[in-house]
Task: inverse folding
């Protein structure tokens, strides 16, 4: 008798891929069923920081590479360790079957089987042996090296069936029985179970070897690979920080330079070094900043020249206008005694002279604002008295309905406040007709923390056709005309613009809108003036003083 495939046939795994001889397959201890599960919905993390994105990308790439390398290394080492142990145990078991079991009688006794199994384990191979024979046909007997450790129940049924199956002997398969093995688990400990049978009806032998040591070695290896993966990820994060700092430092400098450029520092430039893409970006920025500085300087020079021209022209016109005004006043006084054919021409000259005089005065005021020389001369003003004086001086008392309580005192520039009120009320009378309603109230400033200063609010409302929607955004523009077909008007086209400038210099503003009636139709325009009740802080910022000081805009 001889063991099947002892040295010639080689070992075959049960329920592995079919061998060339169709000997069988290797049955695994358990195979998880792989199904396509439901994918959870993960919220997409928005990473606004470029540095964070770089670090995350580096970390993910390093983690993927490290996990892949560790997985491959673990799998290769696992297969190498298990194959080395498995081959050593199976080859030793096959040799023991050939040298010891093959010498037993065809019908060995149970004592023969027990003694032989014990002898097979005395070589220090570390496995247990179980021999299965027959004392008579159909009467099996079992001999085990250690029945407390290894019994026939520990041998998988599939393995027993594969070992006990006789295969046809052919040229390609010279042996009827082969050596089969299977890895299994018992109590959480992995084991290798192998078995073969002696040709000619001899005993069947099984070996049972613990793989606990190999499992411990593989666990240590997995821990080592996990630590190496963690160190690789940490190293990649540190490397990403260095790379991000290298890449983002020029970007931060570019952002800071762009902010300075936006703040008006047109001489801002970046230091250029190297020949990479970021250096090209810095050169482009410097070129754009230089062109912008030249254009702004050119525009500023032209604007300054235009301002100087307007100021000089206004000053030069004052002298002849003074004389012309004196002449027109004389003519106006003598208008009733003039020839009726000449009187209309005199009236026209007087009207146009006054209009030209107003235009020059307004241009002078505009040049002060443009040059930044306008100043505040503050005084305590009773708003009701100020509005009454304004409309009385212009003979508007019958056309204006005033809703203002006396005693609302504000610290403002009375002359500039008079200019604002005169322009707003005059504009309402001209375009909306009488009566014009002027209401006065005070409100708390709209600060987020509720600590805003108290504001003066003056609303001027007319009952005219309102302001067309396309005109509203331009009502405070200089020389703006709502109709291109009628470019000439009685005013200078600067009144509302000057009113807005006077409001702004107080730290206030003016808004324009249309008011609607109960039926939703537009029934007039409303201009709302908002000024701080005390403009002292604004005056100090402008470097001006109060009425007792020396501040003036003349």
Result:
């Amino acid at each position: 008798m001889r063991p099947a495939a002892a040295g010639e046939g080689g070992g075959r795994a049960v329920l592995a891929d079919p061998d060339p001889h169709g000997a069988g397959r290797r049955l695994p201890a358990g195979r998880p069923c792989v199904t396509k599960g439901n994918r959870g919905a993960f919220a997409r993390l928005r990473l606004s920081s470029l540095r964070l994105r770089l670090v995350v990308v580096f970390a993910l790439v390093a983690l993927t590479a490290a996990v892949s390398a560790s997985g491959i290394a673990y799998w290769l080492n696992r297969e190498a360790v298990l194959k080395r142990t498995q081959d050593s145990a199976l080859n030793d078991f096959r040799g023991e079957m050939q040298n010891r079991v093959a010498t037993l009688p065809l019908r060995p006794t149970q004592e023969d089987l027990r003694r032989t199994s014990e002898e097979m384990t005395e070589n220090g191979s570390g496995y247990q042996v179980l021999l299965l024979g027959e004392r008579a046909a159909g009467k099996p007997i079992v001999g085990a090296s250690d029945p407390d450790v290894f019994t026939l129940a520990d041998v998988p049924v599939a393995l027993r069936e594969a070992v006990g199956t006789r295969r046809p002997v052919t040229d390609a398969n010279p042996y009827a029985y082969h050596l089969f093995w299977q890895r299994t688990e018992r109590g959480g400990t992995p084991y290798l179970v192998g078995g073969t049978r002696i040709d000619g009806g001899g005993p069947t032998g099984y070996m049972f070897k613990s793989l606990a040591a190999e499992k411990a070695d593989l666990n240590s290896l997995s821990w080592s690979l996990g630590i190496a993966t963690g160190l690789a990820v940490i190293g990649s994060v540190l490397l990403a920080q260095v790379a991000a700092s290298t890449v983002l430092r020029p970007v931060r400098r570019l952002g800071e330079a762009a902010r300075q450029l936006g703040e008006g520092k047109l001489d801002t430039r970046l230091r250029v070094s190297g020949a990479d893409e970021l250096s090209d970006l810095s050169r482009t920025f410097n070129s754009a900043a230089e062109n912008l500085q030249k254009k702004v300087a050119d525009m500023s020079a032209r604007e300054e020249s235009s301002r100087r021209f307007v100021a000089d022209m206004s000053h030069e016109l004052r002298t002849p206008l003074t004389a012309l005004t004196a002449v027109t006043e004389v003519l106006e006084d003598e208008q009733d005694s003039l020839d009726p054919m000449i009187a209309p021409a005199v009236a026209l000259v007087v009207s146009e002279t006054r209009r030209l005089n107003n235009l020059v005065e307004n241009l002078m005021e505009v040049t002060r604002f443009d040059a930044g020389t306008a100043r505040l001369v503050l005084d305590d003003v009773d708003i009701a008295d100020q509005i009454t004086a304004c409309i009385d001086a212009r003979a508007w008392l019958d056309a204006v309905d005033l809703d203002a309580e006396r005693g609302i005192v504000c610290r403002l520039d009375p002359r500039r406040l008079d200019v604002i009120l005169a322009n707003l009320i005059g504009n309402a009378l001209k375009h909306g007709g009488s009566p014009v309603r002027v209401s006065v109230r005070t409100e708390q400033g709209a600060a987020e923390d509720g600590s805003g200063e108290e504001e003066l609010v003056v609303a001027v409302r007319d009952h005219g056709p309102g302001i067309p929607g396309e005109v509203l955004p331009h009502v405070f523009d200089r020389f703006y005309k709502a109709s291109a077909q009628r470019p000439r008007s009685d005013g200078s086209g600067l009144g509302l613009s000057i009113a807005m400038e006077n409001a702004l210099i107080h730290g206030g503003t003016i808004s324009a809108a249309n008011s609607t009636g109960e039926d939703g139709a537009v029934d007039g325009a409303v201009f709302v003036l908002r000024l701080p009740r005390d403009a002292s802080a604004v005056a100090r910022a402008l470097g001006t003083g109060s009425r007792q000081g020396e501040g003036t805009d003349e």
Observations:
- Residues 1-47, 547-554 have pLDDT under 50 and may be disordered.
- The radius of gyration is 53 Å.
- The first strand starts at residue 11 and ends at 13.
- Residues 544 and 551 are 5 Å apart (CA to CA).
